[in-house]
Amino acid sequence: MVAARPKDDHELVAAAQTGDMDAFERLVRAHADAVYGHALRFFGDPQAAEDVMQEVWVKVYRSLGSFDERSAFSTWLFRITRNVCLDMFRAGKRRPVPVDPVDLVAGLSPDHAQSVVDMAAVEEAMRALQPEDREALGSVTIFGLSYAEAAAELGVPVGTVKSRVFRARRTLLSTLGMTGGERA
Amino acid sequence: MKAECLQAHETISLAYDGEAVTSEDLKNAKTHCASCPDCAAFVAGLARIRQMPSPQATEASIDRALVSVKRVSDALAAREAKDVRDAADADDAPARPRVLSFGRTWPAWGGWVATAAAVVLAVGVITANGIRYMNAPAERAVVQPEMGAESSADWSTAPAQNSDTLSTSESVPLGSALVRAGAPEYVVFQGFVYAVDPKPETLSASATRLGSLPSDLGTGQVRECDVYAGDAPGAIIVSGGRTSTHVATAIVRQFNGASFGLASLEITKFGVWPQMPQGISQPTAKDGSPVFEAGGKDNARVTIYVLPGVDAAAGFAVAPGTSGDDPAAGNPNWTWWVPLK
Fold first, then answer.
1. B121 vs A79 pLDDT, higher one
2. Least CB–CB distance from B177: residue in A66, A142, A147
3. Which chain A residues touch B239 with a CB distance below 8 Å?
4. Which residues of chain B have pLDDT under 50?
5. Nearest CA to B339 among B109, B147, B99, B128?
6. Rounded Cα gap, residues B301 and A1, in angstroms
7. How confident is the model at residue B2, as a pLDDT?
8. Are B228 and B210 in contact (CB under 8 A)?
């Protein structure tokens, strides 16, 4: 769960801004997982995540000419992705699928001490986090933002990002039964 | 949980994200975790989760997104091609002005840009990299003068403009966004520039929402702001939250009895000057050539410049260096004005 931050974003963005569609496609492929992952954790619905994907990349395509690279591309992309999710939610186009606590437990091995935690269980636990905690954790781990960058994008102090990421991790591990027996 | 356990968890969590922790703190955390089963479980859990892949977009979902982008790209290209044909069919007839109105039925950004670009395209060709002119050098430049104060956002202290500074231009590909700081507090809504009044405004519960725009509203952090209809003609209300709601007024000049609004690419931060629409370059000479030719004077006796062979009613440019009471005062770039109605 380590964010990829392609070093050649700058070159790809510059090429895409001149109309190079191959470069644009490479940008899409390099960052598609981050957009999809954020949307999936936001809505809990693969179809909604695909809708977000389409909306985000069309917005990126339309706005790339005005992207001035004062921030990293991934930071800009996080902002667009976050706004698209919030807009869809506010517009009532999509609603987050509720998380069922029973599913959280059912996704885990009965033997927590030696559990093989599968990805679905982790994702379910991610979705059970407080939205602001999940968003902070995702900005850092999926989009690769630094705490300072995440703080700027989320409009909160760096200390708040630090607290949210930490709280998210503790809750996540607790939910998954990976903190020495504690359960949320 | 003991305080030292909490401290160890926090230190390790920070270290995992590449945030700064002292070697001493990290050493203490590791030492503690080695002797504390709960903390050892926490570290092991972090490591296991970190190794797990994040959700991955399927090839099909990526393809669908790319198809959507292609559809938008094709639609824009088709519209440009149609406008080129229409312009050719109209022979030398001037382009018809678009019918616009404040606040409610302003056109989408692409509409008038396509119109303006199409007129330009009537004498040029489209390439994958933008517009190249048959009678111009292969690399056309967006020309921006140098600015003295990068961070000055004070309208009254913006450096005096001199058209001669155009000679210190630099070239960027068409479509790139080359901007300079130092402009007043501008936002762009539906392609038109508005000056934001710094005085906070209270939003009426009955205000009509018109849409949204991205702006930092001077905070340095860009966010999507709600836009509402303002009380005065040409005014909107921009709200970035309960404590950051402001009235913004369109930048307008008069020509031949009609109002023209200042148009620009998106401006997301205060202190950034408006930019010419995509497809219309900054001229390289003070007389507007090779992009424009003089097209008369507006109501304030400021010279306006038009695209060759195109009536000013369809839109016109104004050179930098206008006087202090001009709506484009202080702008170091050529500006583009679109008819309102």
1. A79
2. A66
3. none
4. 93-181
5. B99
6. 63
7. 80
8. yes
ipTM over 0.95: no
Distance CA B185, CA B198 (A): 8
- Please compute the mean of the pLDDT values over residues A71-77 and round it to a whole number: 92
B51 chain-A contacts, CB cut-off 8 A: 1
Q: Which domains does chain A have, with CATH numbers?
A: 9-90 (1.10.1740.10), 101-175 (1.10.10.10)
Contact of A30 with chain B, judged by CB distance below 8 Å, is answered with: no
Helix (H) or strand (E) holding B124: strand B124-127
Name the pTM for this structure: 0.50
**pLDDT confidence of residue A39:** 94
**3-state secondary structure (DSSP) of residue B130:** strand
Task: Determine the residue of chain B that is closest to A173 in CA distance.
Answer: B45
Q: Which of residues 54-93 of A touch B (CB under 8 A)?
A: 54, 56-58, 61-68, 70, 79, 83, 86-87
Q: How far apart are CA B152 and CA B85, in angstroms?
A: 45
B179 min Cα distance to partner chain A (Å)? 8
Query: For residue A119, what is the nearest residue in chain B, using CA coordinates?
Result: B52
